[in-house]
Design a protein that fits this description.
- By secondary structure, the chain is an alpha/beta fold.
- It folds into 2 domains: about 1-80 and about 160-243, Rossmann fold (3-Layer(aba) Sandwich); about 95-160, no CATH class.
- The protein contains 11 helices and 10 strands.
- The chain has helices at about 45-50, 75-80, 95-105, 105-110, 115-130, 130-135, 145-155, 175-190, 200-210, 225-230, 235-240; strands at about 5-15, 20-30, 35-40, 60-65, 65-70, 80-85, 165, 195-200, 210-215, 220-225.
- The strands form 2 sheets. Strands 6-7-8-3-9-10 form a 6-stranded mixed beta sheet, sandwiched between helices. A 4-stranded antiparallel beta sheet has the order 2-1-4-5, with helices on one face.
- A hairpin with a 2-residue loop joins strand 1 and strand 2.
- The longest helix has 14 residues, at about 115-130.
- The radius of gyration is 17 Å and the shape is globular.
- The protein starts with a strand and ends with a helix.
Length: about 240
Amino acid sequence: MMSEALLEVADIHVAYGQVEAVRGVSLKVPKGQIATVIGPNGAGKTTLLGAIMGLLPAKGEVRFAGERIDGRDTEALVRRGISLVPEKRELFADMTVQENLELGGFSRRRAGESRAALANTMEEVFALFPRLKERLPQLAGTMSGGERQMLAVGRALMGKPKLLLLDEPSLGLAPLITRDILATISRLRETGLSVLLVEQNARAALQTADYGYVLETGDLSLEGKAEDLLHDERVIATYLGKR
C-alpha cells in the first residue's frame, strides 16, 4: 500500500501530430518515495516527463500536493517545488561548476531567500557529491560524464525541490558510476524528497525504487512494488535477462 501521493498523473495523453506517444497513462509518486518508469527506448518515458513538467501539451490531469498543475508553465512548476534533470543534462558548458550550481538556486534568490540559505544548500550538495566541491572552478564542459550527471542533479537540488524528476540518469555512464549516482538518489529519499525516475536500465532502477511502472509504446503494461517487479517473469524475460 503506497503512502499519500505527492504527484498524481491521471489519464495523460501526449501526441506528436497524429501519432499518440503516451496513451492514458496514470501513475503516482508517494511522499518521500521513489517511483520509477522503465521501458525500452521510444516507449514514451521522456515524453511523459515533458508533459508532467509543462514542456509538452497534454490531455489529462496532473496534481501536485493535491493541486492541479496541468497547463501551468515550467517556471511556475519549478517555483512550486518540482525540478527536472533532463536526459541530456543541459549544463552550461562554458560556466564553472559553482556558477551552474548558483543558477540552480536562481528562483530561490529571486523569491528573496538569503545567500546564506543557498550556501547551506550548496554544502548539502557537496555532502552528497564531494567531487563537485573539488571541481568548483572547473568548466562544466570539461568534466567527465559521471561528474556532469552529479552536477546536473546537484543543480536541481539547489532549488530545494519537493519532487525530483530524473530522465535516464545512467545514460552513457559506466556501471560503477551509475551505481554510485543511483545510491545517492536513494539517500535523498531519507531527506523526504520524492523522486520520479525514468530509466532504461531496468534492473538498476528497480533496485533503487519503491514502486515501478512499465511503459511500452505509450501504454502502461505493468505496475507494482519494485521488489515484486524484479522477480516478475515477464519483466525478467523482457528487461532484466540473466544476471
